[in-house]
Design a protein that fits this description.
The complex is a heterodimer. Chain A is of the alpha+beta class. In chain A, about 35% of the residues lie in helices and about 25% in strands. Chain B is built from 10 helices and 14 strands. The chains are: A alpha+beta, B alpha/beta.
């Protein structure tokens, strides 16, 4: 889960990292109230994606009127597919210098890496490319975290020795987000040194591991659901599905991320475009299959559904039962092509056949078939088209 | 011949009495895998599927000489199960469990440094199978056939897809290894390819990668330095949209690696044939 800036700052503050005073505003009037409380403010769009400054999502307000206008412009604007739900009005800082500090998972090293650079700010990726030596790095021991002397070394390696004391404390506190919150990435960029010499977080990014949500139920309750995402993704999340919306017309259900991705690739190769990625995962139950189909059919753009299941831990009989049940419950009237293979596939195929669904042979043929069917204007019942193989079953759209 | 798993393996199952543990233990036994023990805390002293059940891995190893383990326990308990197996002297640990928090796996990986003879496969992987001989995990026997092709994959279900196509074409496999799809894993493509390279019974290699991370790039680098294996690579996720990035930290450490394009190019530069669909793999391998 990616936290918004104000949420990330709330968390960092609770870990002992200094943040500027700020106010969350859902309306222009609230932004004005924020100005009256704080004086000159930066009005900042709250979206879980980078590049909002360049997209016009950050404005400086020196008067109440400017704060109102900034909020009017920013709230509701679209930044990289996210509708801005609210702004964060934060006391403007007098910046002396900008530092970069953060950590992330280094997949190659199978470890967390702490990064610190004296060249903070929006051009940090360019810095990384042009002068990688100016970014100091540390791999802390994952059981005990960074030792004091390691942090001191990191700070001196970054050429920031004169700030050793405040920086070591901030980095030590930032690192606590790993053991305490299962954070995967945290970043303060810029970490601002003000003209008065304070060291304070100018921006904050924080991503926590959804696989560890069972350890941190409070985080989801407190911070989840603020951003209005894609409606199908929101519904899928409620139903516990791994689902990503795409902009095509063919609904995809697969088991396993790799198979699901290669199914998208096949549909594109066959000349169609996938409407979604939906991985029903290992051990998929009947209920999961029905949920997946229900979410896909909410999308009126969908003209057909391709289901590709190759079972290992997933059992064909359960998948088939779920599919038949879903069809009956949802009363769809769209073409559906099913490719089912693997563990207990005979039982699965038998169940499909008994219910008038003939399973397809291989993934490529299934992809070509669904693209062909979905591009026909009116779906025709399979029974009335004896020239077509029986694996296309025609179902009613729930709407 | 094979890698990692042969007829001499004395296999145990952690979580043997659970639903998935039971189902797949039976499948493993059906292939002839020598399952000598299981664990299920509190059920020590009982027998399940004809196998003695112990409270701990150390007890199981002491009593049965188990040297390989399949782990089928839920995510909150799986990290400890991996470390328990390593500490008890198990040399091949196969963790099937999906959904383990990444920070737990980072700590587990660090712990395993103290047990250099323990090899971890996974987590979130389908395990491995030496066709006709033995398997640990969930790869269905029916898609396999004994032969000279080494198959290593990050995806579970794509492995079945490709294994099935190879078998249908008469191209049997020496061992099929699913390394798993999590960001922090045990054995990597490189580790497994090095083993296949040394296995004289393996003459061909299929590598099935996917977008994200740079394990495929590292594998390509290794193969580019010279290999006796005729190799075909496939990368899934060419049409997957790029994730919406929030911070810079990922880009700072990984640059442009991780895309399907980067991985395919790395393999081509190494002189490895790249299949555009899984259906092309068999043709390119011959």
């Amino acid at each position: 889960m990616k936290l918004l800036e104000y949420q990330a700052k709330e968390v960092l503050s609770s870990l002992g990292i200094p943040i500027p005073p700020g106010v969350v505003a859902r309306t222009p009037a609230e932004a004005v109230a924020g100005f009256e409380k704080l004086g000159p403010v930066a009005v900042k769009a709250q979206v879980p994606v980078g590049g909002r400054g360049k997209a016009g999502g950050i404005k400086l307000a020196k008067t109440a009127d400017e704060a109102r206008k900034a909020a009017e412009q920013i709230i509701g604007m679209d930044i990289k597919g996210f509708k801005v739900p609210l702004v964060y009005c934060e006391a403007a800082l007098e910046i002396e210098r900008e530092i970069y500090v953060g950590f992330t998972v280094d997949r190659d090293a199978r470890a967390n890496i702490l990064l610190l650079s004296a060249k903070g700010g929006i051009d940090i990726e360019q810095v990384a490319e042009e002068s990688p030596e100016s970014i100091a790095r540390l791999y802390p021991n994952p059981w005990r975290g960074p030792m004091d002397f390691e942090l001191t070394q990191l700070v001196y390696d970054a050429g920031l020795g004169e700030l050793a004391r405040p920086l070591s404390a901030i980095i030590e506190n930032l690192y606590r987000a790993i053991p305490e919150l299962d954070a995967l990435t945290a970043e303060i960029n810029p970490l601002v040194v003000t003209k008065k010499g304070e060291v304070i977080a100018g921006d904050a990014k924080l991503e926590v591991d959804e696989n560890a949500a069972w350890r941190h139920k409070d985080l989801e309750e407190r911070y989840g659901g603020v951003v209005e995402g894609d409606p199908y993704e929101v519904e899928a999340k409620k139903r516990g599905l791994t689902y990503v919306s795409l902009d095509g017309e063919i609904g995809i259900i697969g088991n396993g991320a790799g198979l699901c991705m290669s199914t998208l690739d096949l549909v594109q190769r066959a000349g169609g475009r996938a409407a979604n990625f939906c991985d029903i995962g290992g051990g998929a139950k009947a209920e999961v299959v029905e949920n997946a189909l229900a979410v896909i059919l909410m999308n009126p753009r969908v003209k057909g559904v391709l289901m590709n299941v190759f079972g290992g831990i997933t059992r064909g009989d359960e998948v088939a039962k779920g599919l038949v049940h879903a069809r009956d419950n949802l009363k769809m009237k769209l073409p559906l092509v099913v490719r089912l293979s693997g563990t207990r596939e005979e039982e699965g195929r038998k169940i499909l056949k008994q219910n008038g669904i003939e399973p397809g042979a291989n993934a490529w043929e299934a992809a070509q078939k669904i693209v062909e069917l979905a591009t026909m204007e009116t779906p025709t019942p399979a029974a009335a088209r004896p020239d077509l193989p029986a694996e296309e079953v025609t179902l009613e759209h729930p709407s | 011949m094979s890698i990692l798993l042969d007829a001499s393996a004395r296999v145990m199952v952690q979580g043997i009495t659970g639903r998935e543990g039971s189902f797949h233990t039976e499948q493993m036994q059906a292939l002839g895998t020598n399952v000598v023990a299981g664990t299920s805390p509190g059920k020590g002293g009982t027998t399940h599927l004809g196998v003695p059940v112990f409270n701990t891995v150390a007890d199981a190893v002491m009593a049965t000489g188990a040297n390989a383990s399949g782990i089928f326990v839920p995510p909150p308990f799986a990290p400890d199960a991996i470390m328990e197996a390593a500490a008890a002297g198990i040399s091949l640990i196969v963790c099937i469990t999906e959904g383990i928090p990444i920070q737990d796996m980072i700590r587990v990986k660090d712990f395993l440094r103290g047990y250099p003879s323990a090899r971890l496969l996974g987590a979130n992987c389908p395990g491995l199978i030496t066709p006709g001989v033995a398997k640990i995990g969930i790869i269905p026997q029916r898609i396999t056939m004994s032969g000279p092709v080494g198959l290593v994959s990050r995806s579970g279900t794509l492995t079945y897809e490709v294994g099935s196509a190879l078998s249908a074409s008469g191209l049997g496999q020496s061992t099929i290894v699913g390394i798993g799809g999590d960001p922090v894993l045990g054995l990597t493509f490189r580790d497994v390819i090095e083993l296949f390279e040394r296995d004289r019974a393996t003459t061909h290699l299929v590598v099935i990668g996917e977008i994200g991370g740079s394990d495929e790039e590292h594998a390509a680098e290794l193969l580019g330095r010279g290999s006796r294996l005729k190799t075909v690579a496939f990368i899934s996720g060419r049409t997957a949209p790029e994730g919406k990035r929030m911070g810079h930290a990922g880009a700072i450490i990984s640059g442009n690696r991780g895309t399907a394009k980067s991985k395919e190019e790395a393999f081509r530069q190494a002189g490895v044939a790249v299949a555009e669909t899984t259906d092309e793999i068999v043709g390119l391998l011959r």
